[in-house]
Amino acid sequence: MNNIFNAKRFWLLLKKTVLERPVQIFGFTGLLLALVLIMYTVAKTLGGFGAAQNLTFIWGLSGGSFFLASFVFGYFSSNASGSSFLTLPASHFEKWLCGVLIAGVLYPLIFLLFYRVVDSSFVIMYHHSLDPASPFYKQQYESVYVFPFTGIIAWKVYQMFFFLTGAMFVGSLYFNKAAFIKVSISICILVIGVVALNWLMSKLFFGNINDAGPLSHVTIPLGKEEGTIQVPDRISDAFNYSLWYIFPAMLWLLAYTRLREKEF
Fold first, then answer.
1. For position 80, what pLDDT does the model report?
2. Residue 238: is its pLDDT beyond 60?
3. 41, 56, 106, 188: which one has the fewest Cβ atoms less than 10 Å from its Cβ?
4. How many other CB atoms sit within 10 Å of the CB of residue 220?
5. 33-71 pLDDT per residue, tens
6. What string of DSSP letters covers 155-199?
7. Residue 82's pLDDT is what?
8. pLDDT, tens digit, 9 for 90 and up, residues 220-230
């Protein structure tokens, strides 16, 4: 039998994991989807379709997976449950893959399907509520459309999901208790620290500035006008690619390494 991966053994592990904690997995997934529906309804009423679609997609995908990921490796809150998990007859790769599959694959697929049904339903109801005889019918009809999963905003959210979920996988293995809170605070501190350091470095090099984006641009006042110094595209693209792809991938792999360390 393969010591790294065996399909039958992995299936038994996945089945045990899901059936052993149905409230945490099914319950929280159902709660997250219900909150998405409520949030969509409220946001649409207050801010229109654009706000509802963007807000619920961001929160539901990246936030929901971030929240659920805090539970998939939450066996180490006590010595008993941690020891029980480590002694399961499965490889550390299968245990890592089980958590990744639940929070990083299955939940996003369920959310995307649910979101598409909810979003399409609201858009169809809006289109049916319009008066075809109105001179503004075409404009009103075309102003509201189903949220595109391949649009710019969607891709930004996929990047957030990739980063936040990886961070929570790692955090839940390093912080045995209250991982969700601790990782959230750590990310806030990291973001604030990067922004503050970038601002201080920009002030040091350019003196008086109006704005500064990390490895992006610096805006300098020029009398009543202002000028912008931009980082070369190749450097900016390399930074963004590393931030949103290489660094998150390292987090997902670090979770695997950390889980393996806990087994020894």
1. 65
2. yes
3. 188
4. 17
5. 999 999 999 999 999 999 999 999 999 999 999 999 988
6. HHHHHHHHHHHHHHHHHHHH-SSSHHHHHHHHHHHHHHHHHHHHH
7. 66
8. 877 777 777 77
DSSP string, 232-250: -HHHHHHHHHIIIIIHHHH
Q: How many CB atoms lie within 10 A of CB 135?
A: 7
Beta bridge partners of 220: 227
Q: What DSSP assignment string belongs to the chain?
A: --SS--HHHHHHHHHHHHHHSHIIIIIHHHHHHHHHHHHHHHHHHHH-HHHHHHHHHIIIIIIHHHHHHHHHTGGGGSHHHHHHHHTSSS-HHHHHHHHHHIIIIIHHHHHHHHHHHHHHHHHHHHHHHS-TTSTTHHHHHHHS-PPPTTSHHHHHHHHHHHHHHHHHHHHHHH-SSSHHHHHHHHHHHHHHHHHHHHHHHHHHHHSS-SEEETTTEEEEEETTEEEEEE--HHHHHHHHHIIIIIHHHHHHHHHHHHHHHHT-
Q: Which residue has the tokens 């750590």?
A: 186
pLDDT at residue 200 is higher than 90: no
Tokens 């893959």 belong to residue: 97
Whether 58 contacts 159, CB under 8 Å: no
